[in-house]
Amino acid sequence: MAGRTVIITGGGTGIGLATAKTFARDGDTPVLIGRRSDVLARAADSVPGAVTYQADVADPDEAAGAAEFVGEEFGTVDVLVLAAGGIGLLEPGPAVDAAPLTALAHEWTASFRSNVLTAVLLTEALRDRLASPGGRVLFVSSIAAYRGSGNGAYGASKAALHPYAFDLARALGPRGITVNVVAPGLVVDTEFFGGRQTPERRQALIDETLDKRAGTPGDVAETLYWLASHAASHVTAQILQVNGGAERGR
C-alpha cells in the first residue's frame, strides 16, 4: 500500500500532522494543506517526503486552486483526510457593541465555515480524482457531535459532517471508494483549546474516559491509517469514536 498520495487538510499541526507522519512512515507522500505558510514549512521539515500547499479551503477559489495543484502534481488522490477545523474564526469579528443575534450569527457562520466548508469544498473539488477503486475519504469529527461541548456551534458543525459522509459513501461506493468518519474525544498536544482549557476541565474530561487518560494525536492518526488500509476495504459509512469510551460516561 506504500507510495500513495495522501492529501491532509490541517496537516500542519495536531491530528493532521500526526497523520502525515504516520502515513509517511511507510513511504506514502503526505500533501499538507493549510492556511499558514510558516506552520506548513515547520511541519514539512518533520515529515519525510511531505509536500505543502497553502490555501484556505473554506474559500471556493482556494479549494479549486488546491485541487488543481494536486491534479497537476499527482493526478490521482489515494487518501483524502479532512482534518482542518476547530472553534471557528471569521475575520473581521463582530463589533464590540454588536447585537446578540449578530454575534451569534457570526459565531455559527465561523464554525460551519471552519468545520464543514473546509471538508466539503475540497472533497467535491477532488471527487473525480479519487482512486477508483481503492480511494479513501476520511473526516475528522468530534465527540461534541454526539453530546455537545458547551459550544453548540462547534458540535453542530461537526455533526453536519456525518450525513454528508453517509451520502458520499453511497455515491462513491460503486467506484470502490470508502468514506468514514473518526470522532475523537479529548486530544492533548493540539492547538484546539488555545490555552483556554483549565486543568480542572481537562481532568474532568479524562475522568469521563473508561481508560482514564487523554487521547493523543497519534491515537487518531493510527485509526485513520487503518481505515485507509486494505484491511478496512469493506468498512464504509461508519463513525469510529476514539475517546476512551468517554461517550459512555463514567
From TrEMBL:
GO terms (BP aspect): fatty acid elongation
Domain of life (superkingdom): Bacteria
GO molecular function: oxidoreductase activity, acting on the CH-OH group of donors, NAD or NADP as acceptor
Alphabetical list of InterPro entries matching this protein: KR_dom, NAD(P)-bd_dom_sf, Sc_DH/Rdtase_CS, SDR_fam
Domain Ketoreductase: 4-190
Pfam family, one: adh_short_C2
Family stated for the protein in its record: Belongs to the short-chain dehydrogenases/reductases (SDR) family.
PANTHER family to which the protein is assigned, alphabetical: 3-OXOACYL-[ACYL-CARRIER-PROTEIN] REDUCTASE, CHLOROPLASTIC (PTHR42760:SF40), SHORT-CHAIN DEHYDROGENASES/REDUCTASES FAMILY MEMBER (PTHR42760)
Protein name: SDR family oxidoreductase
Organism name: Streptomyces hoynatensis
Taxon lineage: Bacteria, Bacillati, Actinomycetota, Actinomycetes, Kitasatosporales
